[in-house]
Write a structure and sequence with these properties.
The protein is mainly beta and 288 residues long. Helices cover 3% and strands 61% of the residues. The protein is built from 1 helix and 25 strands. Strand 9 and strand 10 form a beta hairpin. It is rod-shaped, with a radius of gyration of 43 Å. The model has no long low-confidence stretch (mean pLDDT 84).
C-alpha cells in the first residue's frame, strides 16, 4: 500500500515550512515449499538438514528487507523391503529376475518404487534333496531315504513298475537290474539301477548271520561273522550314502571298526563279496 503524508513545521520567525512524504508499505509474504525424499536421505532447507516427515517454518527476508513466513512440507517415503521364501526340488530351476537359480541360498535385488525409492526384494531359496542311494540288505534291496513313498522299477523292462513293490525294502523274485523311484516333500528322484543275482545258499546264510558288537556303540565296534569267509570287503556308509570307513579283502570271522571321529547317528555297515551284500544298521551314540 502507498500513502502520502504532509508535515507542517514553523521556524522561529513563524515561517511555515511544509513538505510531503510518500510512504510505501510492503506486504509480508507466505512462501510454501513441498518436498519429498526417501527414507535415509536428507533435505537441505535454509541451511538446515531435515530427514523426518513434518511441517517446518522459518522467517525469511524479502528483497525489500521485510519478514516473510517460509513453510516446508516434507514427506519421507519408506524404503520397501519384501521377503520371499521358495523351495524347489533338486535338479529344478527357479527364475529370479534374470537368473536361473539351482542352489540353496539367500539372494537379493534392488528395484525402484513409484517415488524413486529403493525397493529391496529378498529371496530365501531352499533346494530339497532326496537320498537316492540303494543298498543290498540280506536278500532284499533297500532304499536309504526315510519317510518317503517308494516304487521299484525293472531297469531291464523299460523301467516298468514292479507290481506291489512299494516299500523301502524290495525282495526281487527273479534275477535282474532294479531301481527305486522315491517321492518325498513333493519331489521325486530315481536311483541308479542295481544288479540283483541269487547266490549259493551257504555263503548267503553266512553273511546273513553277521552282526555288530556292541550295539549301540560309541563308534568303536566289531563285525562278527559266525563263519570265517574269504575275500570279503567291509565298508560303513552314513545315512546319505557316503562311505566313511572301508576295508578291502578282509579274511576271517571278525574285524575291528573305528568311526568314533564321526557324528553320532545311524550308519550302515555293508559286508560284501563278489556276488552278495549284507547290510547291518549301526547306531553310534554321542561320546560322553
Amino acid at each position: 500500500h502507498n500513502a502520502d503524508f504532509r508535515c507542517k513545521v514553523s521556524d522561529h520567525n513563524g515561517q511555515v515550512i511544509s513538505d510531503t512524504v510518500s510512504i510505501t508499505i510492503n506486504p509480508v509474504f507466505y512462501n510454501e515449499t513441498d518436498a519429498e525424499i526417501c527414507n535415509g536421505e536428507v533435505f537441505n532447507w535454509h541451511n538446515r538438514v531435515y530427514y523426518m516427515n513434518g511441517v517446518y517454518t522459518d522467517t525469511c527476508k524479502t528483497v525489500n528487507g521485510c519478514d516473510s513466513i517460509c513453510v516446508l512440507n516434507l514427506t519421507v517415503h519408506p524404503v520397501a523391503e519384501t521377503f520371499i521364501y521358495q523351495s524347489i526340488c533338486d535338479g529344478e530351476e527357479f527364475q529370479w529376475q534374470e537368473q536361473l537359480l539351482t542352489e540353496s541360498g539367500n539372494y537379493s535385488d534392488t528395484l525402484q518404487t513409484i517415488y524413486g525409492c529403493d525397493s529391496i526384494v529378498n529371496l530365501e531359496l531352499s533346494v530339497k534333496e532326496i537320498n537316492d542311494s540303494v543298498l543290498y540288505a540280506g536278500d532284499s534291496l533297500m532304499a536309504l531315504a526315510q519317510g518317503a513313498a517308494y516304487q521299484w522299477v525293472d531297469c531291464n523292462n523299460d523301467y516298468q513298475n514292479v507290481n506291489g513293490a512299494t516299500g523301502q525294502y524290495f525282495y526281487p523274485q527273479v534275477d535282474g537290474s532294479y531301481a527305486v523311484i522315491v517321492q518325498k516333500d513333493g519331489c521325486s528322484v530315481m536311483s541308479e539301477c542295481l544288479a540283483y543275482t541269487f547266490v549259493g545258499k551257504d555263503r548267503k546264510e553266512a553273511l546273513a548271520r553277521a552282526y555288530v558288537y556292541p550295539s549301540p556303540n560309541s563308534g568303536r565296534f566289531q563285525l562278527v561273522m559266525p563263519t570265517a569267509l574269504k575275500t570279503v570287503s567291509v565298508e560303513v556308509v552314513n545315512a546319505r550314502g557316503q562311505v566313511v570307513w572301508k576295508q578291502f579283502e578282509f579274511e576271517g570271522d571278525m574285524v575291528e571298526v573305528d568311526i568314533s571321529g564321526k557324528n553320532a547317528g545311524t550308519y550302515f555297515l555293508k559286508v560284501s563279496d563278489d556276488k552278495y551284500v549284507q547290510v547291518i544298521k549301526v547306531i553310534v551314540l554321542e561320546n560322553e
